[in-house]
Amino acid sequence: MALELDDVRRAAHLARLGLSDEEAASYVDDLSRILEMADSLQAVDTEHVAPLSHSLDTTQQLRVDEVTEQDQRERFQRCAPAVEDGLYLVPRVVE
Amino acid sequence: MHDKTLTELAAGLSAGDFSSRELTDHFLGRIERLDGEINSFITVTAEQAQASADAADATRRQGDAGPLNGLPLALKDLFCTQGVRTSCGSRMLDNFVSPYDATLVERLAAAGTVSLGKTNMDEFAMGSSNESSYYGPVKNPWDLAAVPGGSSGGSAAAVAAGLTPAALGTDTGGSIRQPAAFCGITGLKPTYGRVSRYGMVAYASSLDQGGPMARSAEDCALLLGAIAGHDPRDSTSVTRGVPDYQAELNAPLAGLRIGLPREYFGEGLDPDVEAAVREAIRVYESLGASVQDISLPHTNLAIPAYYVIAPAEASSNLSRFDGVRFGHRCENPSDLIDLYKRSRAEGFGSEVKRRILMGTHTLSEGFFDAYYKKAQQVRRLIRQDFLDAFDEVDVLMGPAAPTPAFDLGANKDPLSMYLQDIYTIAINLAGIPGISVPAGFVGQRPTGLQILGPHFAESQLLNVAHQFQQATDWHLKRPSFGEENS
Fold first, then answer.
1. What Å distances lie between residue A2 and A7, A15, A32, B132, B456, CA to CA?
2. How many independent structural domains does chain B possess?
C-alpha cells in the first residue's frame, strides 16, 4: 500500500515526532516500499492460525503482589532534564 | 595476551602468570592506542576497570575466585551500567547516566569480570552495519573499508581487533550473529527468555535477547553460564534451570543429524560464502554427522513479518523517550507537545524515526489487523517450520549472512539493508537459539557458518560449534590490524 504525505504527517503526530516538510516527504517513498514488502503477507492463508506474540507461546508469569522496590525518587530524578521539589518540570499545561 | 581466548586468560590468571590488573591495563592500553582507527568503543571506563581488576585480584588472593574472576570484557552500550553513560548509540541518550545496572551487568560484575567500557552500536540497535550510530561508524579490523556488521558492530570489532577478549551484544534480528560473521568471531544468540532483558534498553521486546561474543564457542559457553537464568525483574525470562554449558563441549558428534534449509542456499547468496559453508559441512561429515536437505517453506515471509512486528514494538518502546524524565530535551519548548516533538526530532536519527513512523502507522486505527495481527499469524507459521525441521534433524546449518562484510556506505537504501538479515531474522521470530562461527574468508573478509537448534539447545549448539573449532583453525585467525603497534 502506498503512503501519502498526509499519512506520514499523521503517524508523526501520533508518535509525537517533529518532522520538517522536507523530512516527511523523504519518508513517503521509503515507507511505501516497506509497506509494499509487508503486503506480501496478505497472500498467505492464515484463517485458522492464531497470532503468536511470544515465541515460547507461554502466558505472563504472575508473582505475589507485594512491595519489593524502595523509594528511590531522588536517585532516578538525577538524570532528569528539570526537576523541582521532587517533581518533573514541563511547560505550563493549564493556564 | 590479546591473542588468547577468554578460557586461556582464565587459566593464566588462575596459574598466577599475570594479574587481572596487568591484563586490564594491557587491554586499556590497546584501546587507547588503536581504537581511534576503528571507533569500536563509545565510552572507555578505565578507572572503574582498574578498580574492578584490583578487587578481582584481592578476591583471588583470598582464594574466592570463580571461573570468570578478573577477566576483562566490554558491554554493548545498551546495557544499563550504574554511574556510566548508556547511550544506545543515540543523541537521545548522550547525556544519560544510568541510575541502575542491567541484570546481565550485575551478574557479570558479581562473577568478578572487569568491564573495559561500552561498545558502539547502531542507534537503538536498529541496523546491520553500525553506520546509524550517533557516535560514527565502526570500521572492520579485517579491512578498514568494510563495515563490522550490526547492530552489535562495536562489540564484534573490539573482539576481532584484540581490544577486549570478549563482549556482550544483543540480537533482535541478527545483531550478534551477523557482526560475529563479518568480524570472524563467535557469537551466540540464546533462546528468547534465557537471558534477562532487565536493564537492556528495549528495541523489540518479543525478539530482543542478549548474548556472548568471543573468540571461541568455549568462551561463549563460559559467559553464557554467567548471564543465563531466571530474573524476577523480567517476567519473560524463563524459570528453567541453567545447565553447565561447558559439560557437553567435548561430546562426540557421531550420529549428529544436520539439516540444510534449501531456502538458505538460494538466490542472493555469494558463491564464495556458499563454498565456505559447504566446506564447513564437509568437516562435520568427517566428524561423523549426517546431512540432509530440509525446507523452511515460510522463509521468504520472515523479513516482511519482522519489519511489521519489530517497528511496531519499537514505536511503543521508544515512546518513553519524551524529554521529561531522562534523555535529551529541546531548548525553550513553547508547550508540552512542542517539548515532546522537538526533543524526539532532535534526539533520534533517521533510521530510528523511520521505524517509529512505520510502527506507528501499522498500529494505528484501521491498519492493525492487516499488518500487526497478520504478521503475528505468519510468525506462528515461521516458528512451525523450525519445529517441524527439528523433528527430523538435530541442528540446521547455513550461512550467517548472504555476503561477507560490505563496504562502508554501500547500502544507502534502507530496504537493501534490511535484506542483509535474510538468514538471521526468522530465528528471532521463532525464538530459537543460533550461533555464528568463523568458517573461512572471502578475500580478506571473514565469513560465518550459522548453526541453529531447538529452543534451549544452547549446550548442543556450543558442543557442535566447539567440535568444529577443534577440527579447524578459522577462529584462531587474527587480522593484521594493530600488529605494528602492539
1. 10, 20, 5, 26, 41
2. 1
Ranges of chain A with pLDDT below 70? 1
What are B230-273's pLDDT values in tens digits? 999 999 999 999 999 999 999 999 999 999 999 999 989 999 99
Contacts of B30 (CB under 8 A, 6+ apart): B2, B161, B162, B163, B482, B486
Amino acid at B78: L
Touching A: B residues 366-395, CB under 8 Å: 370-371, 373-381, 383
Across the interface, whether the CB atoms of B361 and A76 are under 8 A apart is answered: no
Would you please indicate which residues of B are annotated as catalytic (active-site) residues?
76, 151, 175
The type of residue at A22 is E
Please, is B455 exposed, middle or buried when counting C-beta atoms within 10 Å of its C-beta (0-12, 13-18, 19+)? buried
- State which amino acid sits at residue B337: I
C-alpha B290/C-alpha B115 separation (Å) is 42
CATH of the domain at B127: 3.90.1300.10
User: Could you tell me the domains of chain A?
Assistant: 1-43 (1.10.20.60)
DSSP string, B24-57: HHHHHHHHHHHHHHH--EEEE-HHHHHHHHHHHH
- Report in angstroms the alpha-carbon separations of B281 from B122, B370, B471: 32, 41, 12
Say if the Cβ atoms of A56 and B431 lie within 8 Å. Answer: yes
On whether any CB of chain B is under 8 Å from the CB of A35, the answer is yes
Looking at the partner chain, which of A16, A30, A42 has a beta carbon nearest the beta carbon of B337? A16
CA nearest to B329 within chain A: A81
Question: How much is the ipTM here?
Answer: 0.95
CA distance B399 to B383: 19
**Partner residues linked to B400 by β-bridges:** none
Which of B 69-108 lie inside 8 A of A, CB atoms?
95-99
Contact B445, B142 (CB under 8 A): yes
Judged by a CB distance cut-off of 8 A, whether residue A51 touches chain B is yes
User: B151 preceded by cis ω (within 30°)?
Assistant: yes
Q: Are strands B166-171 and B72-76 parallel, antiparallel or unpaired?
A: parallel
What three-state secondary structure class fits B395? strand
* Structural domain boundaries, residue B99: 6-254+459-485
Q: Is residue B240 part of a domain?
A: yes
Q: What is the pLDDT of residue B484?
A: 61
For residue B122, give the H/E element and its range.
none
State how far the Cα of B337 lies from the Cα of B349, in Å rounded to an integer. 20
CA angle B109, B110, B116 (to 5 degrees): 15
Q: Answer whether B208's CB lies under 8 Å from B200's CB.
A: yes
State the pLDDT confidence band at B486, using cuts at 50, 70 and 90.
Answer: very low
How many residues are listed for chain A in this entry? 95
Q: Are B172 and B79 in contact (CB under 8 A)?
A: no
- Judge if pTM exceeds 0.90: yes
Beta strands in B103-202 (DSSP E): 114-119, 166-171, 186-189
Q: Which three cell numbers stand for residue B276?
A: 565456505
CB contact under 8 A, B431 and A55: yes
DSSP A57: -
In angstroms, rounded to a whole number, what is the distance separating the alpha carbons of residues B285 and B279? 10
